[in-house]
Design brief:
single chain, mainly alpha, 310 residues
Amino acid sequence: MASIFGKENTPALSAEEYENSLRKIPDELKSLSDEQLKGRKAELEAEAVKLTGEINRAVKNGELEEVVAEKKAKLDNVYEQTGEIERVFAVREYEREAAKANEAQRSNAEYASRIEGYRSEMDPARYDLGIAGVEGAIARFNSIISDANKKMSQINTSPIQLQTADDALSEKESMIETAVNVKEEFIKIKEVLEYDLKAVKGQLAAAEAKLENLNADIEKYKRLIVDLNVDIMMQKTGYADIAMDNVEENIKTKSEHIAELEKHLGEVVKDAKDCKMEIDEYRKKIDEIQNGKTAPTAPSDTENRAHSDR
């Protein structure tokens, strides 16, 4: 595990390796920060370089085996300590990645729950507008709100027309509030549609990969069947390098194998056909989610009220 002379090397651990590594870490290392561990590791690597040089010189100078062995033992100890530090880094990396995965799982669950909440509240007819239709509706309501705000700023609030101005302002405020609420509904609908679009695109990708594998299997079975038929033909015509008394048995075996392959081929062809139908359905669903099943609805009362005095 140790990287004595190279760059940082923190191997990915499995859950079992993590548990084993965690038990092996000395308590004194657990309390050290990453920076402190890096500092200690650098010192150990420098010590390893020094000891390696000493060992090489000792061997070259013909020093006693006991001296060389002692230095090698020290070097092994340095390697062991460096390995312990590497183990700490690996454990901490595992814990960071596990925390990220748990947070992502929790976030995804919360997001899915929120989406399903939106879905339960929404009008199915608006869902059928698709993302393009919903974006168009949001743009229309943004325009309505903007125009209403402009008209509010133009209302005459002089003392002579105060009551009339109050009534006009109240009406515009009510209309803007309604428009904002409806726009928020469309924003939620768009979120639901985008969530569904991502899911269906994932299903489409999986189905396309499956079809690619099925088509490869179809070609494989076809080649095997052709090869076996060629073998049978050669045996029948005497061109095969096989004893005559075994020809009939070989032909029978290969014929049975062909029948078995043809059966599998038929099953795979059917699976491929079903998979193509699934792909067509997913593509149709994607188009409906993106572009909608229905034409945009007629202007609502809110829209009509906003445009009535333009």
